[in-house]
Write a structure and sequence with these properties.
This is CHCH domain-containing protein. By secondary structure, the chain is mainly α. It is 44% helix and 0% strand. It contains 3 helices and no strands.
Length: 75
């Protein structure tokens, strides 16, 4: 009977941390200033992390944040 080889990656790993541990409700004053656009900003940051900081891959997020900011400044 063959002994099963152990996979070094099979050890229990802690779950990965979310890209943003703090949300807009936390003490990040810069994000709080974005008010209703803060979730779009955090979404853009997640996209950039997921795409190796490639802005071209995240243009939908960039445009959504830009549109939100423009709506806010018109109020």
């Amino acid at each position: 009977m063959e002994k099963a080889t152990e996979n070094p990656n099979s050890e229990a790993q802690p779950p990965p941390h979310p890209n943003h541990q703090m949300d807009a409700d936390d003490d990040d004053e810069n994000v709080k200033q974005l008010k209703e656009c803060s979730s779009l900003y955090l979404s853009l940051q997640d996209c950039l992390v997921d795409n190796n900081r490639d802005w071209k891959s995240c243009q939908k997020h960039v445009q959504a944040l830009k549109a939100c900011h423009e709506r806010r400044t018109k109020k």
